[in-house]
Amino acid sequence: MAVAADIERATDSTTDWVAEHVQQYVASGGTEGHDWRGVPTLVLATTGARTGEPRRTGLIYGTSGDDLVVVASVGGAPEDPQWYRNLLAEPQAGVLVGTRKLTVRARTAGPEERGPLWEQMAHIFPKYEDYARRTDREIPVVLLTPEA
C-alpha cells in the first residue's frame, strides 16, 4: 500500500465538517488539524470494502504502546461506521498522525483489552460514554499497529 498516495487521493467523508477537517489536515502535511477542539486526531485511509477505492476520515485517537487506538462510535448510531467495515474487509490502512505517515494493520480489541482501552478513550473524549448509551451495539475499539 502506498500510504501517502492513498491518503492524498482518497475520497473524503460525506460529512462536510469531517471532510473539511481532513482536507486541511492533509493539505498542511499534518501541521494543522492534529489538535481538534482539544483532542488529538489522525486521518485514516481505508480501502473501500465494495469499491476497492481509498476512503479517508478523521478520528480521535489514543495510544497503547506503539499502537494507535480509535473508536468506531459514529455518534452511537445503530450500525458500525463504514471505515470500520472497510477495515474488517482489509485491515491494512494508511494513517497520517501529526506529520507522520504510517502503514498500519487494524484489529478489534478483544474482550480483555477493550475495557481499559475504552476507559482511556472515554477520558480523552467523554462523549463516547453518551454514544454508548445511545446504541444497543458494543462500540468497537480498534488498535492500529504500525507495520515495519
From TrEMBL:
It comes from the Bacteria. It catalyses: oxidized coenzyme F420-(gamma-L-Glu)(n) + a quinol + H(+) = reduced coenzyme F420-(gamma-L-Glu)(n) + a quinone. Coiled coil: none annotated. It comes from Actinomycetospora chibensis. SUPFAM superfamilies: FMN-binding split barrel (SSF50475). InterPro entries: F420H2_quin_Rdtase, Split_barrel_FMN-bd. Pfam families: F420H2_quin_red (PF04075). This is Nitroreductase family deazaflavin-dependent oxidoreductase. The lineage of its organism: Bacteria, Bacillati, Actinomycetota, Actinomycetes, Pseudonocardiales.
